[in-house]
Structures are given as structure tokens and as C-alpha cells.
Amino acid sequence: MATTGITPSSETANLALSRQYSTFDVAGSYFGIDVLQVQEVLRYQDMTSVPLAPAVIEGLINLRGQIVTALDMRRRLGLPQRVDGQTAMNVVVRTEEGAVSLLVDEIGDVVEVDSASFERPPDNLDPAIRDLVRGIHKLKDRLLLVLDIGQTLNLGAIQAEPGESAAPRRF
């Protein structure tokens, strides 16, 4: 068998030199999700509320016949609610269980970043945010917080509000 001189680990390292992220803004913070996890981005959609759902669940949307849970990222991150007149946008992500919409303040662009700019979240970052962030990329003019979709959708870590079940939930 002929050898190419390229080992699987060096090939993987070359592929990991840069990544693309779909970006969005929540309360002035700049977040990114691996572009391969994003199904689509949409303007605000009418929602149906879900009785007894955790407070972070804004409701359900009908996305061309598919029922999608909409999760409010401001609430998930423990941030203040949107001001009156500010309409949320939808970032629909693919999960093993199906599509979930993240309600964000503003949709950004797809950015490509070098893996060398990646750092672990600092210890002094607010724990509500640190637990949901895989790491941070230092960009030219700001920081890109890389969102961990699995942790974001793991609602079991959220304190139940009065009248809610404390059972772990995951989307």
C-alpha cells in the first residue's frame, strides 16, 4: 500500500484551520453557531404559546408544516427582555430531535475564522453565559462567542419557575 505522507491527524489539522459561523446579536453580544448546524434564518414568525412550558420557551411556530419550538435567547442567557417594538429574528438550527428556533435580536453574516483565534471562555464570564459558550474567537473589532447548541437546548439546568415542572427537558 502506497503512503502519501499525510497522516489522518495532519489532514484533520489542516481541515480545522478555519471554521465558518452563522452570527447573530443578543443584547449587544455577538454569537456564532457552526454554519452546518443552521437550517435557515427567518424574520419574526407568529407563535402559539405553550402552557406550563419553561419561561425560555416563547412558543411554537409553523415552519412550512413543521412545528418548531422557539427558544428566547435573552431569557436563556438571563438577560433583560427586548424593549417594546423590538422584534425577534429566528435562527433555526438542526438537532437530532428536529429543528429548534433561537429567537435573537439581529441576524449577522457568515464569518470564517482561523482556529488560532479560538480561546476557552474566561472564568470571569457570567456563569449563565459561560456554560452555554464553547469558546471565544478574537476578531479584528470584537469577540465572537461560539454557542454550544447542545448546552443551550439542555433546559434541565434552568431553575424551574413557580408553576413549572423541575424535570429536565431537552430539545
Tell me about the largest β-sheet.
Answer: 6 strands, mixed
Strand content: 35-45%
Helix content: 10-25%
- What is the radius of gyration? 18 Å
Category from helices, strands and their pairing: mainly beta
Poorly predicted runs of 5 or more residues: 1-12, 159-171
Bulk shape: globular
Q: Care to count the β-strands? A: 11
Structure description:
The protein is 12% helix and 41% strand. The protein is mainly beta. The strands form two sheets. It has a six-stranded mixed beta sheet. A five-stranded mixed beta sheet has the order 3-6-7-5-4. The longest helix is centred in the N-terminal third of the chain and has 8 residues, at 8-15. The protein is globular, with a radius of gyration of 18 Å.
Concise account of the structure shown:
This protein has 171 residues and is mainly beta. The protein has four helices and eleven strands.
List keywords for this structure.
41% strand, disordered C terminus, 12% helix, disordered N terminus, 171 residues, 4 helices, six-stranded mixed sheet, mainly beta, globular
Walk me through the topology.
Blueprint: H1 8-15, E1 18-26, E2 29-34, E3 38-42, E4 57-63, E5 66-72, H2 73-76, E6 89-95, E7 98-104, E8 106-114, E9 118-119, H3 127-130, E10 133-138, E11 143-147, H4 149-153
Parallel strand pairs: 2-11, 5-7
Antiparallel strand pairs: 1-2, 1-8, 3-6, 4-5, 6-7, 9-10, 10-11
